[in-house]
Specification:
heterodimer; A: 412 residues; alpha/beta; Fumarate Reductase Iron-sulfur Protein, Chain B, domain 2; Rossmann fold; 3 domains; four-stranded parallel sheet; three-stranded parallel sheet; B: 139 residues; 4 helices; 40% helix; 17% strand
């Protein structure tokens, strides 16, 4: 069996009956007439693999998995794309990455063996341990908050917010400076070698802490540990939990109290948490337990719209249109805040919201796209208005203050 | 251990700093030959990725040299560079790479001496820091 045949076999793509449901539902195919999931599978089966591998559109798939979900024969299209991308890279067909690829480089650099300062957000009022039952995987929110300081600076607050919530429930999580990137963007951009290296480092490090449960706020990290890590390593030896599931248990035990709130919130199901992992109810129950008014957009749960970019590859006018569609849905239900657990969704939506020349439909729209964990931390009883870390307000187009830039200037 | 010569990638802007480097050479000023100069039309063209990638590929230090603030050939390109360097510097700190490996200098076309002195200082600083931790050394 050739490598390609193996990929087709593993994805179950031989079961494809060419019904075309995937293409008719695909959000990319709707806007980009050259892209069709069905055609990609059919071509691969017909032995036109080099055509599939060299096609730039293999990077246009947003891996939102609406095709997997709706396929009557359960073809794993996103799994097929993930592995075909590694083949494409080998052929020299690489994606056009946002920020010239700085995000992927940052992620690769976490695993080079130097001593990081990963826990700079850890202030004295936060209680953490070095060994214990509960490990909190901080992910790259903080670093992304630096790289996207003009669009999504609030991401810098996420790790501190999660520790604050867990502390309020009486839990001191383990956090580690030796943690590295989970590798989500790397495996989805075809870099399997570095992904495996990072995976090994993370799993060994977490096992050494003796943790029984690993908690995630980031939807992508959660997916990567739950599915990709277990594909390669089998049983990890610890339980992987998303913070929304984890907090619900704590709330049931009466360990968390929230203050009154009058914001109208809508919840965006990120594809990683929703369609990939099947977590739809927990975030909604969480909002209910917090006494927050939830207004639902027309496309939710399995049919949720996508933020338009995957692994920072091939951001295009198609992505923009997808983002606009989602934001208009949120505007349509008069939500003040749209919450999501995925840091990438947050970046992509805020990228559109903070454009100097916004699409006309978004002018005068007062909508904030915010991080769910930050929101929970702000709603805790006794929490101050804003969490201590981070500076700019959400969605505001921030400029580096001159003094800050001056400080950084050279090694003077 | 014999002292290892640090490798520097220097991004110099076409209008000021590249000419400044040229002047240093024409004036026969002595400075260490550790830098590989990459000419860019404006420092505003630089992305954080270029700086990170240079370090990833084994540079011990990265120098960004452009026109003085207010003198940019494209009005405000150097201000953009300043912002991006500040951002990259903050990121390097979190990644555990010494910020001193990234250096931003304003060198005009008439400042050949300043270019030579910058090079001497930077090489001295980098030798004190030792090889980049991304090459397997510890920091």
């Amino acid at each position: 069996m050739t490598k390609i045949e193996k990929i087709i076999e593993d994805a179950g793509a031989f079961d494809c009956v060419e019904c075309g449901k995937c293409t008719s539902l695909c959000p990319v195919a709707k806007l980009n007439p050259n892209f069709a999931p069905r055609l990609i599978v059919v071509k691969a089966q017909a032995g036109m693999e080099s055509e599939v591998k060299s096609d730039k559109d293999i990077w246009s798939c947003v891996t939102c998995e609406i095709c997997n979900d709706m396929c009557p024969y359960k073809v794993n299209f996103s799994g097929f794309i993930q592995r075909m991308r590694a083949e494409a890279i080998e052929m020299g067909n690489s994606p056009l990455c946002s920020e010239a690829g700085a995000i992927h480089t940052m992620q690769r650099l976490t695993g080079k063996g130097q001593k990081q300062n990963r826990l700079v957000w850890l202030t004295n009022d936060l209680r953490v341990k070095e060994k214990g039952d509960v490990y909190f995987f901080t992910g790259c929110s903080y670093q992304l908050g630096i790289l996207f300081k003009d669009r999504a600076a609030e991401l810098k607050k996420v790790p501190a917010s999660v520790v604050k919530i867990l502390n309020a429930a009486g839990i001191e999580p383990v956090v580690s400076n030796d943690e590295v990137c989970c590798g989500h963007d790397l495996i989805w951009s075809g870099n399997e070698a570095v992904f495996k290296d990072l995976m090994k480092k993370n799993v060994e490090m977490i096992r050494a802490t003796g943790a029984k449960t690993v908690v995630f706020s980031c939807a992508e990290g959660f997916r990567t540990f739950s599915l990709d890590y277990q594909d390669f390593l089998g049983d990890l030896g610890f339980e992987v939990k998303h913070i929304s599931e984890y907090l619900l248990d704590l709330i049931e035990q009466g360990k968390l109290d929230f203050k009154e709130s009058n914001v109208k919130v809508t919840y965006h199901d990120s594809c990683r948490l929703g369609r990939h992992m099947g977590i739809y109810d927990e975030p909604r129950e969480l909002l209910k337990a917090m006494n927050v008014e939830l207004v639902e957009m027309p496309s939710i749960r399995e049919k949720a719209l996508c933020c338009g970019v995957n692994a920072f590859a091939n951001c295009s006018e198609v992505s923009r249109k997808m983002q606009l569609d989602r934001l208009l849905e949120a505007k349509g239900v008069n939500a003040g805040v749209m919450l999501t657990f995925c840091p990438k969704c947050l970046i992509h939506y805020n990228c559109l919201l903070s454009m100097e020349k916004k699409p006309v439909e978004l002018e005068n729209v007062e909508l904030v796209v915010g991080d769910f964990s930050n929101f929970i931390a702000e709603q805790l009883k006794g929490a101050t208005e804003k969490t201590s870390v981070g500076h700019e307000n959400v969605g505001q187009v921030g400029n580096v203050s001159n003094s800050e830039a001056e400080n950084m200037k050279g090694g003077e | 251990m014999t002292e290892v010569e640090p490798k520097i990638v220097a991004f110099c802007c076409n209008w000021c700093s590249y000419a400044g480097a040229d002047l240093a050479g024409v004036s026969r000023l002595q400075y260490p030959p550790n830098a590989r100069i990459i000419r860019v039309m404006c420092t505003g063209r630089l992305e954080p990725e270029f700086l990170l990638r240079a370090l990833e590929l084994g540079a011990d230090g990265v120098l960004i040299a452009g026109c003085h603030i207010g003198c940019c050939h494209y009005i405000s390109g150097n201000e953009r560079a300043q912002e991006k360097v500040a951002m990259t510097s903050e990121l390097l700190d979190v990644l555990g790479i010494d910020k001193k490996r990234l250096r931003l200098e304003w060198i005009s076309a008439s400042e050949g001496r300043r270019f030579a002195e910058t090079m001497q200082e930077f090489v001295k600083d980098l030798k004190a820091l030792g090889p980049s931790p991304l090459k397997g050394g510890a920091e």
